[in-house]
Design goal:
- The structure is a single chain.
- By secondary structure, the protein is mainly alpha-helical.
- It has one domain.
- Helices cover 78% and strands 0% of the residues.
- The protein contains seven helices and no strands.
- It has helices spanning 17-44, 46-56, 66-74, 77-102, 107-143, 150-183, 185-192.
- Helix 4 (77-102) runs antiparallel to helix 5 (107-143).
- The longest helix has 37 residues, at 107-143.
- The chain starts with 16 loop residues before the first helix and ends with a helix.
- The model has no long low-confidence stretch (mean pLDDT 84).
């Protein structure tokens, strides 16, 4: 009687984080690309929309005219379009990096780290643009000779700065996470073992 030797199948245990993080990256990248695309459309249409709105909006008694406020926004139109185009491109980089992560391709690490660096840079640019836009809008209010109390102007400016600060932190949160995640020794070792 012959015995067959026992066979052992070794199950290679794979981690789940690449699939999870890849899907999250693709979803956030898709939202970022849509937001960037909408930003391009909205910024490009700012002129005609602001002219139409200025005609239909009544002038504030003792306040800034809608035309002055829209004029302040139009000064930033070119920068807003450029920022939205770059946002779309960076979001596409996140989508591609997420897809490569799901497939466990080693290039995903550099793509996602590049995305993180570019995302932080765009957040800084967006915050600077937001600050200058806020300054122009506040100047439009002052130019109009509006009789708004100084406290109201200060509160408006403070709220604008707070919103920009919170928006900046929110914009870089994912990028900071990606940088920290892919700098971990365990993760770098696993990613380098991929094809």
């Amino acid at each position: 009687m012959t015995e067959t030797p026992p066979t052992f199948t070794t199950a290679i245990q794979t981690t789940q984080w690449p699939k999870t993080l890849g899907i999250i990256s693709i979803v956030f990248g898709a939202f970022g690309a849509m937001a960037g695309f909408c930003g391009v459309i909205g910024s490009a249409a700012l002129g005609p929309i602001s002219e139409a709105m200025a005609k239909f909006m009544p002038a504030n008694k003792g306040g800034p005219s809608p035309a002055d406020t829209f004029e302040a926004l139009q000064k930033m139109q070119g920068w807003m379009i450029a920022n939205s185009v770059l946002t779309t491109l960076v979001a596409i980089l996140l989508i591609v990096g997420g897809a490569k992560l799901i497939k466990r391709q080693v290039q995903c690490r550099m793509m996602l780290l590049s995305w993180a660096a570019l995302k932080i840079l765009l957040a800084v640019i967006g915050s600077v643009l937001g600050y200058f836009s806020l300054q122009d809008q506040m100047a439009a209010i002052e130019k109009s000779g509006a009789s708004t109390p100084a406290m109201s102007q200060s509160a408006t400016k403070l709220m604008g700065l707070f919103s920009m600060g919170f928006g900046f932190l929110w914009a870089i949160a994912g990028a900071v996470f990606i940088i920290i995640w892919f700098k971990r020794e365990k993760i770098r070792g696993e990613v380098s073992s991929w094809m």
